[in-house]
Amino acid sequence: MEQFLTPEFWVAVGQIVMIDILLGGDNAVVIALACRKLPPAQRTRGILWGTAGAIVLRVVLIFFALTLLAIPFLKLAGALLLVWIGVKLLAPDPDDDHSNIAASDKLLAAIKTIIVADLVMSIDNVIAIAGAAQGAADHHEMPLVIFGLVISIPIIVWGSQLVIKLMDRFPSIITFGGMLLGWIAGTMLVSDPALAVADTLAWMPKIDQTSGAIKYGAGVAGALLVLGLGKWTAARNKAAAPAG
Asked: Coiled-coil regions in this chain (predicted)?
């Protein structure tokens, strides 16, 4: 039980909740669009059941992601993906929309739409949350993931509009979130089994996992990389946008 009272556990929980809020904006939009044609009496049920199904599906996906991250080089690939996700968070695609989300006046159809759409959109959440969970105590990643996601459910369902307004008013929240993904990417990269486990691919150079300076230095480098690429991409998108 004491492993759930460590600072590392609660830092990881905070990261998971932050990730799910920042990357859950699209999910909140999908939920609203899928349920918009439901009768008012069924709308809340559709939101709750659709979100519950999507969260269960995400837990299953994260379980497999945590298992797969034990394979050499997959953390390297995951780190690169997180950098890309962080950059997209700081410089979103102006052409990205949700016009293909179908609404339904049937409860089960709306729930199905939410779950299927969340499956397609969950790769960013899954990789980011799996990476954050790696910072917890060994063998306790899944309880951490489930706990973090459960905490985030009411935030997404009931507080998504408030969160979106806060992000619009305080853009630094989004900047911090993008840098957080870069931090997780850096620490994930240096802990890849190919670089961290002595008897895995012995021909590969190994990184000293007992050195906090290496881990935190990689995290800072990842955060700064996302910030720099995000600012550059946002400036390029702004320059390329049609005038008027």
From this structure: none
Assigned domain for 241 exists: no
Q: d(Cα 196, Cα 27) in Å, to the nearest integer? A: 35
* Domain extent at residue 181: 2-234
pLDDT exceeding 90 applies to what percent of the chain?
6
Is residue 156 one of the residues assigned to a domain? yes
Q: For residue 50, what are the contacts with CB-CB under 8 A and spacing of at least 6?
A: 31, 34, 35, 110, 111, 113, 114, 115
pTM: 0.71
User: 54 near 167, Cβ under 8 Å?
Assistant: no
d(CA 22, CA 142): 21
Report the 10 Å Cβ neighbour count for 3. Answer: 14
Total domains in the fold of the chain: 1
Residue 239: inside a domain: no
Structure tokens at 163: 């969160």
Residue type, 49: W
Q: How far apart are CA 221 and CA 166, in angstroms?
A: 27
24-35 confidence digits (pLDDT tens) = 666 666 676 677
**Within-domain flag for 11:** yes
Average pLDDT over every residue of 87-112: 68
Instruction: Report how far residue 22's alpha carbon sits from residue 128's, in angstroms, rounded to the nearest whole number.
Output: 11
